[in-house]
Task: inverse folding
């Protein structure tokens, strides 16, 4: 029998979910004055429950009777259709939202466990959300359902009573082996199969597969094709950037056999050789995350991933599983690292994009932003990992294709930093069960998004279950410390297929698919193999350790199952109930992909002069830049993230006199008994890419490093990661702009001696739709390179923050200001085009970082802020209002490059490698000595009055003069949701 | 006298166990982190400890309601040993999720004949929030708060709003001196907070409460997150390093047995 328990707020308590729906419907222009009542429902299927028992469960488990009331009964009962408070009676429409079958429902899973404690047997629990809505017509209801209540990718809306009286549990599966005939297909047929089968392989690859099986004189099975497609997918093999590229730019032609290896990896290798015995890199570009040395006992792992395409379709689930995925990368690094912090960077279309202008079924950017932020929040917070750093960038081109970068750092004992599965080891699956969720995620993320993606790839979208992953983490750390396994990796894109394929690459593996625990019956052998169901890890366990592993997992309610064995055959053999369904050589999978040479061309954008407006007063311009979404306070997001869990927080994301100023980088102590700290920061400038991706990449690296240095990190111990998110790289200009960025990474890394230790790319970030006249329109994202930095600080007590501390201190500007308003935020808010984009003098940057670090370490700097978006004016304003200490600055004193520089450029140029430092009078001489060989000048002082006053020259009228509270308001208001 | 032993109880989803154990260690105690399943297997293991602490986190995902599933496990399987533990004059501390567990399992003496009279529910904002708050102690009943008049500590929760069934229930808990810890406006010379001083809309600004004996304390703020001076959100603005204010709570617990 199917019972239902609905939980309502007591009539004297607010119905927040109902209020949310009403206010967002208003905000989105769907309906002006709705009455909405909401309830959370639990559907419980059980043969043994009676009404009294249901009543007891409602009182003692599901409802908090201090503030809530409940309604219960058998599904179909009348009382379940009426709301116990307004709006009720006629005119209120009941809409019920259910997760689609097969979508993860963590609350229902926990509820099943909880009901056990009452000694009651239930078959299955599912959740439902109910809304009684009054004041909307059918069209409005439809819009509310599809845009506010439910996301069609994972949920369904039922209007009126539920149309079922039992929950589907799936039916048993009997083996039905499918083969795919390839020999009769011509090129067109092969490509048709590639698309419709969601393999997303290219023609040359399909031809190679065709030839391979022709030689074997047999057709491939469906699972063999899927396995090859997963392994060869862009997502898993990075075939474009790690492939052959013929590149052409203003310096001539250059050929790469493996572009990444010859640029970014090569720089790291050169540095490691240069350092010799002092090499502090441990494991780079080989494991799930890069590893560097930390202290005598520990190393640090660092990785940033993207989860763009799933987040475009289902922002909450996409971001949620994005964090879950990158955390598993850390857990699956070496013999398992312990996650210590998250960093998250998002790119969205502006939240004020008018709803009416949204085409091709894209989600409202504000909804995307809310969903992504909640997805990260709910996973990161539940995992107990502090989210300490991040950034958000806005550009209209992220409309149908937002970017979600999720990063994680981990701590790992030095002797656990490497792994290798041994022949004869058991293949053990640990954690969540396998379901139909996440099918085709790897190949899907390598394809362009279209307005049909939602229906084609719905299975690629998932919801995570953070608590499952937390349990897995807890138990794996214990098993690791007892040395009970030889290898570990996560099930990410490609599921078992890539996890087992990677671990067994040099050995061979045999997998018994029917043994994998499944969430429900009916999964085919292929679905089990390629499902990307979350929260699963794969271990390679020696046979004699298995019993102990099993017991430890069982003790903590974690499921562990032997699903196969690493057999030294060099082959990947998959069986389902003893029948071989796949027999492929590891060699074909990992080396059989045909080389493709891609063309890449870079042509410099034509230079265009920028005429900055000359005005007597730039205060209004400063307010506009502070209010611009990229610059504005992200407090609304930050406050939703737990940034102090694990107890090692040293510098929090928000700092200053009222704890609301924008810190440059976060610092934490991963070892609570030690003073040594980890510094996390990032750099990104998608706007510069429209001018020159070399300058963009160099600027992002400079920004990430200077953010670390600004808080006190040692510049000789900063490791960085690259994350390239680009458009369609089959187009030579798009690929050319990426190669150019990679060349900048190589050059900067070598000179700064800042190694790249890992990276990831996500290509094909484009969104296509058909406009009203039936024409295909494509929006490509701007080139988006995120540089994430992980620095170290010997003693966290030497750290500094960016908020001004007190009046009567000196202000120094370190670094040279140039006429670089191209791509700046001043240009953005003024609607200006052209100009020169900021470049980096890498050698000078290295010297500057070293000098600033020395000054910080010697305690000479009271506060320090890097100059980035909005230049000097924004940095000065942020320092002043964060510290609630005023500042006077004289623009004629700033170090400039030769010729006369206009006031606008002095205020707002975004030239790299600059810091604004507050130094007490007693430290001034020593500070100036420390800075003697780099551009640095005293430009002003801190003052008692709470205002920012900037003059072009001593005795002249100010060009900026404003009260600090006013400036702060400009900065805080835009994203204060 | 030997150091008191502290049972740090963790369940699936508990995530502040390590730093809470570290805080007790800094305070001079002997903490041991134990999985709830082990206690369920051998209920008598608690007899070897002087303090029981349920740390913060998301036990069982906060699914259904924060702390509810954990609390029901105690109600159904451990209520006798829990009662024995308290009656033996030992101490119990619940932090954040631990407070949610304590209040929902009835250990804080909040049940009457008609069921629970107090609970912790969703913040007024409807949203998780992480920030620092000012706190004031209202009376001297609670062992853990001895010698503390006010405090500055971080909170990080979504369901931290203290509520009672009605005004009468509140009055009863108040007159029994159980509502020991309150959110308060910025004291003179205290750190400036731009946001409202009460972070979740708690009735009577209640941030923490104890049982009738004063030996069981539940609180939403995280004292284990302020053990070292560099955990203070404004330590870089302070000429003198601030003391780790949260450490007092753990020291009080440990000292009670020495």
Result:
């Amino acid at each position: 029998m199917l019972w239902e328990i609905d939980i309502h707020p007591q009539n004297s308590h607010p119905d927040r979910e109902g209020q949310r729906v009403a206010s967002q419907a208003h905000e989105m222009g769907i309906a002006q004055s709705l009455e909405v009542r909401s309830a959370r429902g639990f559907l419980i299927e059980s043969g043994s429950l009676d009404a009294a028992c249901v009543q007891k469960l409602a009182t003692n488990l599901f409802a908090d009777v201090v503030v809530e009331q409940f309604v219960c009964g058998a599904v179909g009962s009348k009382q379940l259709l009426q709301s116990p408070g307004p709006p009720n009676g006629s005119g209120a429409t009941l809409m019920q939202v259910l997760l689609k079958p097969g979508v993860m429902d963590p609350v229902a899973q926990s509820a099943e466990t909880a009901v056990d404690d009452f000694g009651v047997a239930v078959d299955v629990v599912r959740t439902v959300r109910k809304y009684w809505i009054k004041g909307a017509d059918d069209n409005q209801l439809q819009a509310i359902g599809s845009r506010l209540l439910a996301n069609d990718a994972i949920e369904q809306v039922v209007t009126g009573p539920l149309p079922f009286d039992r929950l589907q549990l799936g039916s048993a599966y009997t083996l039905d082996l499918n083969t795919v005939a390839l020999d009769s297909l011509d090129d067109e047929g092969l490509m048709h199969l590639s698309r419709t089968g969601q393999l997303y392989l290219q023609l040359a690859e399909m031809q190679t597969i065709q030839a391979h099986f022709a030689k074997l004189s047999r057709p491939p099975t469906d699972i063999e094709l899927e396995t090859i497609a997963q392994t060869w997918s862009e997502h898993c093999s990075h075939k474009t950037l790690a492939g052959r590229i013929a590149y052409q730019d203003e310096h001539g032609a250059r050929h790469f056999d493996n572009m990444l290896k010859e640029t970014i990896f090569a720089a790291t290798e050169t540095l490691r050789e240069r350092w010799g015995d002092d090499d502090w890199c441990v494991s780079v570009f080989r494991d799930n995350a890069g590893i560097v040395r930390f202290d005598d006992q520990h190393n640090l792992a660092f990785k940033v991933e993207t989860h763009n395409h799933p987040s475009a379709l289902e922002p909450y689930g996409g971001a949620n599983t994005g964090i879950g995925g990158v955390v598993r990368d850390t857990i699956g690094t070496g013999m398992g690292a312990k996650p210590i912090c998250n960093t998250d960077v998002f790119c969205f279309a502006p939240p004020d994009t008018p709803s009416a202008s949204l085409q091709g079924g894209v989600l409202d950017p504000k909804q995307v932003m809310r969903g992504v932020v909640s997805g990260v929040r709910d996973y990161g917070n539940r995992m107990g990992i502090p989210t300490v750093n991040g950034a958000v960038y806005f550009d209209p081109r992220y409309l149908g294709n937002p970017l979600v970068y999720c990063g994680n750092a981990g701590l790992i004992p030095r002797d656990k930093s490497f792994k290798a599965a041994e022949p004869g080891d058991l293949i053990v699956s640990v954690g969540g069960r396998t379901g139909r969720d996440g099918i085709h995620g790897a190949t899907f993320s390598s394809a362009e998004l279209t307005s049909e993606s939602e229906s084609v790839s719905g299975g690629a979208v998932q919801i995570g279950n953070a608590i499952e992953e937390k349990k897995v983490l807890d138990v794996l750390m214990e098993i690791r410390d007892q040395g009970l396994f030889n290898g570990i990796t996560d099930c990410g894109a490609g599921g078992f297929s890539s996890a087992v394929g990677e671990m067994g690459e040099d050995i061979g593996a045999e997998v018994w698919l029917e043994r994998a625990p499944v969430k429900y019956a009916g999964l085919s052998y292929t679905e089990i193999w390629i499902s990307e169901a979350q929260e699963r890890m794969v271990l390679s366990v020696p046979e004699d350790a298995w019993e102990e592993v099993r017991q430890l997992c069982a003790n903590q309610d974690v499921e562990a199952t032997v699903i196969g064995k690493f057999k030294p055959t060099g082959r990947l053999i998959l069986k389902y109930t003893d029948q071989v369904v796949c027999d492929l050589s590891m060699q074909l999978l990992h080396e059989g992909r045909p080389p493709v040479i891609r063309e890449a061309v870079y042509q410099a954008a034509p230079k265009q002069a920028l005429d900055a407006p000359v005005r007597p007063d730039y205060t209004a311009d400063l307010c506009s830049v502070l209010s611009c979404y990229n610059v504005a306070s992200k407090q609304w997001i930050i406050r939703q993230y737990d940034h102090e869990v694990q107890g090692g927080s040293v510098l929090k994301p928000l700092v200053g006199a009222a704890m609301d100023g924008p810190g440059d980088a976060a610092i934490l102590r991963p070892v609570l008994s030690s003073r040594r700290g980890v510094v996390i920061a990032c750099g990104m400038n998608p706007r510069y890419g429209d001018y020159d991706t070399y300058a963009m990449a160099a600027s992002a690296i400079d920004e990430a490093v200077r953010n670390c240095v600004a808080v006190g990190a040692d510049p000789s111990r900063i490791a960085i990661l690259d994350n390239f998110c680009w458009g369609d790289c089959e187009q030579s200009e798009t690929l050319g702009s990426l190669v150019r960025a990679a060349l900048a990474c190589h050059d900067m890394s070598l000179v700064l001696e800042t190694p790249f230790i890992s990276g990831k790319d996500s290509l094909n970030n484009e969104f296509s739709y058909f406009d009203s006249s039936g024409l295909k329109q494509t929006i490509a994202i701007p080139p988006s390179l995120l540089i994430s930095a992980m620095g170290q600080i010997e003693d966290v007590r030497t750290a500094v923050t960016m908020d001004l501390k007190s009046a009567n201190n000196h202000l120094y500007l370190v670094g040279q200001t140039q006429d670089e308003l191209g791509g700046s935020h001043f240009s953005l808010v003024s609607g200006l085009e052209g100009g020169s984009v900021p470049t980096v003098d890498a050698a000078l940057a290295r010297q500057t970082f070293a000098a600033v670090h020395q000054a910080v370490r010697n305690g000479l700097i009271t506060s320090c802020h890097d100059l980035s978006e909005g230049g000097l004016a924004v940095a000065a304003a942020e320092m002043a209002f964060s510290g609630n200490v005023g500042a006077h600055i004289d623009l004629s004193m700033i170090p400039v490059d030769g010729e006369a520089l206009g006031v606008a450029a002095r205020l707002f140029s975004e030239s790299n490698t600059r810091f604004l430092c507050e130094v007490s009078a007693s430290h001034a001489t020593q500070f100036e000595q420390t800075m003697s060989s780099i551009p640095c000048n005293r430009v002003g002082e801190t003052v008692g009055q709470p205002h920012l006053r900037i003059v072009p020259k001593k005795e002249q009228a100010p060009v900026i003069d404003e009260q600090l509270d006013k400036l702060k308001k400009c900065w805080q208001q835009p994203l204060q949701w | 006298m030997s150091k008191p032993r502290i049972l740090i109880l963790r369940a699936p989803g508990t995530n502040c166990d390590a730093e809470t154990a570290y805080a007790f260690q800094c305070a001079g105690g002997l903490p041991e982190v134990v999985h709830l399943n082990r206690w369920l297997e051998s209920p008598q293991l608690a007899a070897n400890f002087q303090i029981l602490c349920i740390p913060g986190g998301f036990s069982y995902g906060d699914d259904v309601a924060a702390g509810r599933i954990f609390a029901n496990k105690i109600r159904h399987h451990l209520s006798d040993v829990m009662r024995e533990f308290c009656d033996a004059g030992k101490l119990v501390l619940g932090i954040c999720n631990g407070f949610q567990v304590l209040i929902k399992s009835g250990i804080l003496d909040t049940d009457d004949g008609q069921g629970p009279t107090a609970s912790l529910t969703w913040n007024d904002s409807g949203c998780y929030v992480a920030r620092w708050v000012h706190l004031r102690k209202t009376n001297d009943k609670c062992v853990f708060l001895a010698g503390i008049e006010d405090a500055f500590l971080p909170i990080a929760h979504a369901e931290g709003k203290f509520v009672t069934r009605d005004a009468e229930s509140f009055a009863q808990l108040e007159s029994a001196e159980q509502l020991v810890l309150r959110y308060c406006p910025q004291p003179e010379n205290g750190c400036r907070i731009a946001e409202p001083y009460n972070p979740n809309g708690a009735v009577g600004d209640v941030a923490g409460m104890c049982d009738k004996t004063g030996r069981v304390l539940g609180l939403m703020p995280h004292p284990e997150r302020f053990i070292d001076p560099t955990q203070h959100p404004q330590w870089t603005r302070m000429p003198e390093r601030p003391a780790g204010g949260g450490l007092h709570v753990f020291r009080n617990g440990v000292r009670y047995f020495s």
Chain A touches chain B through 67 residues (CB under 8 Å). The longest strand of chain A covers residues 35-45. The first helix of chain A runs from residue 16 to 27.
